[in-house]
């Protein structure tokens, strides 16, 4: 150390220690001052002003919106323009951020942990875990019902907790989850309209695989489509994770039968790829012409229309498949709900934004290329949608290819069916307990009976935890 | 030292206040403390604070959507342990870390010796070896996800052309438990190998040249020099590389989360990804924190053991 100091006096090039300390002190002070100045500047920004003005403030207002990057990109283009125009019209500065749907849970959790972030956050699965820290949307829903028509029951159960009586979310659209099948392949085995039951799916899928070498694609991995497929199958067999009173009912002969069926379906019609799929994998497989049947929204078909038109022409749709007792239920594919965290400053502006978004349902459904269906039964929009489904404005061949989706409300339900999509159902969905249960049996790792018992144990633990938080009803 | 004191003598005698300030500035510990301050602040805010928060969460019933914080003792740990998947998750964590780092230690030692030698194109080989380290973990995992995709993987094409698969056959690398675990191990080894190689290479270059020359003069061959001189001298450095590799692999969630999502089933689920699924995706922050905390004593113990061994080695 001493040597260094002596050198510094000789050369004059090395900074003496005291000068270094003085200099860094000054730099730190300057940096602090600059930060303070920057803070002063931002205090005058629309966002900060909005924060200070509160809901009823008279200063410039701002709202920040976080939502997924839509599977149909034209929706995002439309939404961004519409939100900006809405902001100009209402004197509100609107910021829109899109992120991948898979990143929404982590981003939302981070914002709630920090207690700051976006004023409106849209999820595509029920965001029920956030109920304690969000504004009640009851008044917006009530106003929307008055203005536009009744909210579809399963959309209500995806955003409303009957146990607490709180609308933790505002569900404005939903998406059907039909079967997407390759007509040429299914016609070849004598089923030109595709399978109508899970039994048909097994016999037809096995025959197509044996004769044409084309496999089927129903996922059993950690992603949303696999979760929906598992639920649709269990419901159609008469089982369910919970009953209407929010008691765990998973461990039943019906569920065990459904799990055994899935293992059999895997062995006869699929390959191990279904255990490793992401949400996009079944779309990619169908568009690539490598799969005979998948459970998905129309997004895969829309992708094929531009990416592989020949395959698109061959893709047709089936409603929910019937189980042994004739029950046919499918999960809603996407249910889009906005939550408004308690830190949101301009509550009134946010609510007005949501009301006007529902009012723009005609355009939003159109720009989603009929991917989104309105959650409120506005007669005008519903009639227009039925017309579009009968004659697809996005060039389906034949034009009425999507017509059966007009009945989709009848065979769709929420992920918590027959109960609500409560936080326990949300945790079970997001930790992939059902697809893992299916996969364990299909892989031969365990029997259907023990896999269902193990999954039930996990579900009961989850329900117990959320019951203690007083967010879930039931006792078992 | 004396020169500085001489130069500042006059103001000290005339300004008592300034004298005090300068005494403060002249303290030997001041510069060191000032230089350490950013690192200490970083550790407090970005390591210490999250760790304390995780410990608090693990003893509470906190969820992602609620600021309510009730102390529940060891209940979350009990919930975590009694999850039927927990034993498998712990086992996968150790298997993936152990095998990947065993591979890394062998490969990094070989690579360090190769890169220490003189040959044409050495800079290019070094560049290639370091490439994975410059790639963010998430980006690297996504690239591997595409490479191992069930439909579009190039490995199927190679396997078909090598006759391993029939026409139209698929390896489904991420769909079978063994292959998926192997893939995660390979990616972990791929991404931690460069750092280990650089560390060992630095250690190799620090071995005094005269010792090697002396051994050559004494007639020691390559293997004799390798096992008798170089590896014993490199051991503390290799242990440091091993420590880093274990810590980075044991605590990593990105590779599993992106590459396999823990699947097939829960066959590749590790503690870090499991904690993320339970805590963030599932909204069960307290159990997620408890799951994550199971890594802490293991990592702490490992660090203590390896650093003690390295220290003893240096003492020898």
TrEMBL record, chain A:
SUPFAM superfamilies: Periplasmic binding protein-like II (SSF53850). InterPro entries: Bact_solute-bd_prot1 (IPR050490), SBP (IPR006059), TAT_signal (IPR006311). It holds the Pfam family SBP_bac_8. This is Extracellular solute-binding protein.
Automatic annotation (TrEMBL), chain B:
It comes from Leekyejoonella antrihumi. This is Sugar ABC transporter permease. Residues 1-21 are annotated as: Disordered. Belongs to the binding-protein-dependent transport system permease family. It is a multi-pass membrane protein. InterPro entries: MetI-like (IPR000515), MetI-like_sf (IPR035906). It comes from the Bacteria. SUPFAM superfamilies: MetI-like. Residues 90-306 form the ABC transmembrane type-1 domain. Its main location: membrane. GO terms for cellular component: plasma membrane. GO terms for biological process: transmembrane transport. It is found in: Cell membrane.
């Amino acid at each position: 150390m001493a040597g260094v100091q002596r050198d510094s006096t000789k050369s004059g090039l090395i900074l003496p220690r005291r000068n270094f300390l003085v200099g860094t002190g000054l730099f730190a002070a300057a940096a602090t001052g600059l930060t303070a100045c920057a803070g002063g500047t931002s205090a005058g920004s629309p966002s900060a002003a909005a924060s200070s003005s509160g809901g009823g403030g008279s200063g410039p207002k701002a709202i920040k919106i976080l939502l997924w990057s839509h599977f149909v990109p034209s929706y995002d283009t439309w939404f961004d323009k519409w939100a900006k125009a809405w902001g100009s019209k209402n004197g509100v500065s609107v910021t829109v951020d899109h992120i991948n749907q898979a990143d929404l849970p982590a981003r939302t959790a981070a914002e709630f942990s920090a207690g700051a972030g976006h004023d409106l956050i849209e999820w595509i699965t029920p965001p029920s875990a956030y109920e304690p820290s969000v504004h009640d949307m009851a008044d917006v829903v009530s106003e929307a019902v008055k203005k536009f028509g009744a909210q579809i029951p399963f959309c209500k159960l995806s955003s409303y907790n009957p146990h607490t009586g709180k609308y933790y979310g505002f569900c404005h659209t939903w998406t059907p989850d039909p079967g997407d099948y390759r007509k040429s392949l299914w016609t070849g085995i004598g089923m030109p309209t595709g399978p109508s039951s899970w039994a048909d799916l097994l016999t037809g899928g096995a025959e197509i695989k044996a004769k044409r070498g084309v496999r089927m694609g129903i996922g059993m991995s950690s992603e949303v489509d696999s979760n929906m497929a598992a639920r649709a199958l269990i419901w159609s067999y008469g089982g369910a994770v919970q009953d209407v009173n929010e008691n765990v009912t998973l461990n039943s002969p019906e569920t065990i039968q459904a799990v055994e069926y899935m293992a059999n379906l895997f062995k006869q019609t699929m390959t191990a790829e279904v255990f490793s799929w992401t949400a996009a994998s079944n779309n990619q497989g169908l568009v690539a012409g490598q799969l005979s049947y998948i459970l998905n929204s129309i997004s895969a078909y829309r992708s094929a229309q531009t990416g592989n038109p020949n395959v698109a022409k061959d893709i047709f749709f089936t409603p929910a498949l019937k189980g042994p007792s004739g029950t046919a239920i499918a999960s809603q594919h996407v249910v889009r709900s906005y939550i408004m965290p308690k830190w949101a400053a301009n509550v009134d502006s946010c609510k007005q934004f949501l009301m006007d978004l529902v009012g723009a349902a005609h355009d939003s459904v159109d720009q989603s290329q009929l991917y989104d269906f309105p959650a409120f039964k506005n007669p005008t929009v519903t009639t227009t949608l039925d017309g579009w489904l009968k004659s697809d404005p996005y060039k389906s061949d034949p034009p009425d290819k999507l017509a059966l989706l007009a009945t989709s409300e009848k065979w769709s339900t929420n992920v918590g069916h027959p109960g609500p999509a409560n936080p326990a159902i949300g945790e079970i969905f997001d930790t992939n307990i059902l697809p893992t249960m299916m996969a364990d049996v299909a892989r031969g790792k365990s029997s259907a009976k023990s896999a269902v018992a193990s999954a039930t144990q996990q579900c009961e633990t989850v329900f117990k935890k959320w019951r203690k938080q007083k967010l879930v009803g039931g006792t078992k | 030292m004396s020169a500085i004191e001489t130069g500042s003598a006059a103001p000290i005698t005339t300004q008592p206040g300034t004298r005090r300030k300068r005494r403060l500035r002249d303290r030997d510990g001041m510069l060191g403390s000032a230089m350490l301050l950013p690192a200490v602040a970083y550790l407090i805010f970005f390591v210490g604070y999250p760790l304390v928060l995780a410990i608090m969460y693990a003893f509470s019933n906190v969820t992602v959507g609620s600021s309510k914080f009730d102390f529940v003792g060891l209940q979350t740990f009990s919930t975590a342990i009694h999850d039927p998947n927990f034993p498998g998750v712990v086992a996968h964590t150790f298997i993936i870390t152990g095998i990947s780092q065993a591979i890394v230690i062998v490969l990094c030692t070989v690579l360090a010796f190769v890169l220490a030698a003189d040959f044409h194109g050495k800079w290019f080989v070094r560049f290639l070896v370091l490439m994975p380290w410059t790639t963010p973990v998430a980006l690297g995992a996504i690239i591997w996800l595409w490479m191992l995709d069930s439909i579009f993987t190039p490995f199927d094409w190679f396997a078909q052309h090598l006759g391993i698969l029939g026409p139209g056959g698929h390896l489904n690398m991420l769909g079978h438990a063994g292959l998926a675990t192997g893939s995660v191990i390979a990616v972990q080894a791929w991404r931690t190998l460069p750092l280990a190689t650089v560390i060992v290479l630095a250690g190799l270059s620090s071995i005094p040249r005269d010792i090697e020359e002396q051994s050559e003069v004494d007639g020691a061959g390559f293997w004799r020099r390798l096992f008798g001189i170089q590896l014993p001298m490199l051991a503390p450095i290799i242990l440091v590389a091993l420590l880093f590799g274990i810590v980075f692999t044991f605590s990593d969630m990105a590779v599993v989360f992106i590459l396999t999502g823990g699947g097939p089933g829960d066959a590749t689920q590790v503690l870090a990804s499991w904690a993320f699924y339970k805590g963030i995706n599932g909204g069960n922050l307290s159990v997620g924190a408890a799951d994550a905390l199971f890594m802490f004593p293991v990592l702490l113990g490992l660090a203590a053991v390896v650093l003690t061994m390295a220290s003893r080695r240096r003492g020898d």
